[in-house]
From TrEMBL:
Membrane topology per record: Multi-pass membrane protein
Gene: btuB
Any one GO BP annotation for this protein: siderophore transmembrane transport
InterPro entries, sorted: Beta-barrel_TonB, Beta-barrel_TonB_sf, Plug_dom, Plug_dom_sf, TonB-dep_rcpt-like
The name this protein goes by in its record: Vitamin B12 transporter BtuB
Signal peptide positions (record): 1-29
Length: 615
């Protein structure tokens, strides 16, 4: 039996055992889906999750808080279809993938602000600095979403909402955490709510000595530290019964140390990042409108033998409107304009580039019956460098029974080459946009309000993939594919015990028939949450990852298979009173030695203690 077959056999057995518990659990009433679960990303207008034909994972504040103060990408790694690779400890490059597609294909928004780095190699968001500290909600929307979100949403969209005011009057929250690697994390949030509006502000800070980015098991002992401070705010005010104005913003500064896979080095990075968004929502007759302005900027400085600097900016203006044309048909429409800029001073050469994109979209949502929802979205973009591009998406959600959903979606996408791919030292001005098409179909069955099973088949095809080869970026003729299966489920084993599990199989192939790197073929997650006493709760999570390939870095060459691994994490929380909780968290309980990127290290067993509360 090969390693792949053994891994698949073990994973399939574990997945089946965990997921089939839901089917075998007796006494679960056949209740309808929870209509309180809403997605704001799947369609142009807020939609109940069970009415979405696209797969969307919604993570609420309670689940985020239970995980402790961790890197957000690691928290999302437990979701089906999501995988993460890290180049070392906090502050080093962290890449999140959806169904095998990396950051260049994923739109990331924080409080409505597009935070994809316009100066990065492929205009992707770096998850290195994003912690869960000031996050209250995350949506992960899977599949091609270019028809609604444009060029960066080929594989999906992640929408992050920071802490919001929830109680009338003034309320405050705090969090303090200490632990391994001399780590200190601090967080404070204050919010105020009136009858006409709300405002919220958060301040978080992290400092850690870290561990060696270059794997310590290969003889690298120098720890790579990290320090970051983040300020975020959001608010809105009802000017009248038909008009609301508001805004959100953040500022973050960070300093870190890092290595290359070749070994220890004294490399450092300094990053300054900020974003702003202002909006006005108003009604004109039967039409609901929103106008928004946004700005994002990042300034990254590196010292790696010689100094280098990368600056990126994004200016955005958008309008969206919606109207109910009939009891069964809603029409949404809008347009946006984006200007993106890039400057670099690296390897002794200064480079810069700018491009602009204007787009319009229209979306029709048809519900001919209570059981059926059909959504069609069309978009036309005009890119200053590449001309026009048309994308579309059709999604269907059908509920033949109150506790059964059938889903299907198909969408097209395009990804314009990043400014770095075009204009950097390694750029190629002759690149063309990538084009793609994605498909998914799935079924979800409920067994009462808290138990479910979900299965989704997916496939994405990318034509004319852009890849780095030799001394620069080039187009790869042909089609690359990412396809597979997602399974997930959850069930209450008792009034105080809840089991959830997820399995993802991802089969990838580039135009030459080779597998894509850093994409696990099999990934399994299981979580057991327990209320041990009235005041004490606990969570045990297990992650197994099999069959991952990576490139051998320069000066080597070729492909290497990363070791399979199993991670176990444990957390306990004790409620001191109605407004405070003490907790502890043990990461990598088994002290597993593993890599998610060849040559780069991961955390040993680590223990953290914290206190959080409100007043």
């Amino acid at each position: 039996m090969t390693r792949t077959q053994a891994a698949l056999s073990r994973t399939t057995a574990l997945t089946s055992a965990a997921l089939l518990v839901a089917v075998a659990t007796p006494g679960q009433a056949q209740e309808a889906f929870d209509l309180d679960a809403i997605t704001v990303t799947a369609n142009a207008e807020a939609t109940a999750v069970e009415r979405s034909g696209s797969t969307v994972e919604v993570v609420e504040e309670e689940e985020i808080r239970a995980a402790g103060e961790v890197r957000l990408s690691e928290f999302l790694n437990r979701l089906p279809g999501v995988s993460v690779s890290n180049n070392g400890p906090a502050g080093t490059t962290s890449t999140l993938r959806i169904r095998g597609a990396g950051g260049a294909y994923i739109g990331v928004f924080v409080d409505g602000i597009n935070v994809s780095d316009t100066a990065s190699t492929q205009m992707a968001f770096n998850w290195a600095n994003m912690m869960t500290s000031d996050i209250c909600r995350v949506e992960v929307l899977k599949g091609a979403q270019s028809a609604l979100y444009g060029s960066e949403a080929v594989a999906g969209v992640i929408n992050i909402t920071t802490n919001r005011a929830t109680e009338p009057g003034l309320s405050n929250r705090y969090a303090v955490e200490l632990g391994s690697y001399d780590t200190v994390k601090l967080g404070f949030n204050s919010s105020y709510v009136t009858d006409n509006g709300s405002v919220s502000a958060s301040l978080t800070h992290i400092r850690t000595d870290g561990f060696s980015s270059a794997d310590e098991n290969l003889g690298n002992t120098e720890a790579d530290g990290f320090e970051a401070t983040r300020l975020s705010f959001a608010g809105e005010y009802d000017v009248s019964e038909t008009m609301t104005i508001g805004g959100a913003g953040f500022y973050q500064t960070s300093e870190g140390e890092y290595d290359t896979s070749a070994g220890d080095a004294d490399n450092t990075s300094d990053t300054e990042e900020y974003g702003l968004r202002a909006f006005a929502r108003f009604e004109t007759g039967a039409v609901e409108n929103e106008v928004a302005l946004q700005y994002y900027a990042i300034d990254r400085r590196y010292q790696e033998g010689s100094a280098s600097r990368y600056l990126g900016e994004r200016y955005g203006l958008s309008y969206s409107g919606s109207v109910q044309l009939a009891p069964t048909f809603d029409l949404s429409f809008g347009g946006d304009y984006t200007r993106e800029e890039f400057k670099s001073d690296a390897f002794g050469t200064a480079n810069d580039g700018t491009y602009k994109t204007a787009g319009v979209f229209v979306e029709g949502a048809w519900a001919p019956s209570e059981a059926l929802d059909v959504v069609l979205t069309l978009r036309q973009d005009d890119h200053s460098e590449f001309g026009g591009a048309t994308t579309g998406r059709v999604s269907v959600a059908y509920r033949p029974l109150d506790d059964l959903i059938l889903r299907a979606a198909v969408g097209t996408g395009f990804r314009a080459p990043s400014l770095y791919e075009l204009y950097s030292n390694f750029g190629n001005p002759n690149l063309d946009p990538e084009t793609s098409v994605s498909y998914e179909m799935g079924v979800e069955k409920r067994f009462g309000p808290d138990a479910f099973l979900r299965a989704t088949l997916f496939r994405m095809e990318i034509t004319d993939l852009i890849d780095f080869a030799g001394s620069g970026y080039n187009q790869v003729p042909g089609t690359s594919t990412m396809q597979g299966l997602e399974l997930s489920g959850g069930v209450p084993l008792s009034e105080t015990l809840h089991l959830s599990a997820a399995y993802t199989y991802t089969d990838t192939e580039d135009a030459d028939g080779d597998r894509l790197v850093r994409v696990p073929e099999h990934e399994f997650n299981v979580s057991l949450d327990a209320e041990l006493t009235e005041a004490l709760n606990g969570s045990l999570t297990l992650r197994q990852v099999y069959d991952t390939l990576d490139n051998v870095p320069w000066p080597g060459s070729g492909i290497v298979a990363l070791e399979d691994y199993t991670l176990v994490d444990l957390s306990l929380g004790y409620r001191l009173n109605d407004s405070a909780e003490a907790y502890m968290r043990i990461e990598n309980v088994l002290d597993e030695e593993y890599q998610t990127v060849y040559g780069y290290g991961t955390s040993d067993r680590a223990v953290y203690f914290g206190l959080r509360g409100r007043f």
